[in-house]
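Quick one: sequence plus zinc ion SMILES, need structure tokens.
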Amino acid sequence: MYALKLELKLNNKQRTYLAQCAGYSRFVFNYALAFYNQIDHNDIKGSTSKKLDTIKILFNKSKKKEPELSWCSKYSSRIYQNAFRNLKTAFSRFHSKKAGYPNFKRKRNDCSFTVDSSNGVVLLAEGSKIKIPTLGTFRLKESLKFNCVSQTFTISRKGDKWYVAFAIDAEKIPPIIHEIVEPIGVDLGIKTFAVLSDGTTIESPMPYRKARTKLAKTQSHNRHKQMGNRRLKIPTSNNAKKYFKQLAKKHNRVANVRQDFLQKTTTKLLKKYGHLKIENLNLKGMMSNHKLAGAVTDLGAYEFKRQLIYKAPWYATKINIIDQWFPSSKTCSNCGCLKSDLTLKDRIFNCIDCGISLDRDLNAAINLKNTKDEVIKSRVGSTRTYTPVDRIPPTVLAEAGREHHGQL
Ligand SMILES: [Zn+2]
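Reply:
Sure thing.
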């Protein structure tokens, strides 16, 4: 059994709704606990579980009859069912000396609740959305990578982020088999986006380049337009308003194309290769070189590296970050001699010592591939973020709530 915990991408309405659901769950839990604490246990015999079942029946009756509890019917009945189940689990943990006597839940610490599907497991389709039983469909920050099934879902908040956690069969996580396991150097180029040491080149997307050129042209044509001037009481012209609105739209489009390209490229690389070696980026140095700054930062070398690193554990790919002072461009990948007079203009690396001649970026990528451990600045793990929770049945997992949150 594995537990998956995924971040939800919510709008304000959904945020409010989930917070209300958590509030309802907390209310039911505290109501039942308070009720249980008031029972004269010398007078009424029976197991905790049986007593809680009776309290549940009473609660269900009064929530239908009493006007002050009528708001409860607004929420999924799976919430109160699971709140009772959570309280039962808390008591059984107390009885088996695994935890202290159940505490009342507080708003500050306990913003979570559980729902389940009463008709057995539900299918969760691969993709960027998740359908949670009785609550509806929500967008996910990172999409679900495969189809799977689950029954019980715990929704929780940490800071201002919301998560959904559920258990799935371990077999449902497809094994990751990398096409290429030996180390591969990745050189982020100027002309081509990236060159790999196996000869693969990655071009930056055409629409992106087109959009950028267009954007630069519009900006230069309209360089004198201003959004009025409040101090001088000059109102903004309609033309200027229109222009800045369009400009923002275009900027947005360029950013989207770029983001899409980077997401797809990093995923593709991590799926195919089991071990990547990339250079740590010296952003300051690149920015100080004007020509490089335009080419490299625009295409998001920094964002590329960031995505590779955070996604690497999902695909079990190892990543080595090579020290930025390692002369990957200036070293001959064949004989190892240093060519200190190499300039940015030189697209071909010609070695006078051994006579080899090859693409400048390919030469750098091969050098990155061959780097020794001394120049590796940091390593990114190759373990999955999915945490095995062997032998814990899903219901206990979901209900254990706070204790397990850290590990999910
Ligand atoms: Zn050489």
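Residues 26 and 311 are 35 Å apart (CA to CA). The longest strand covers residues 136-144.
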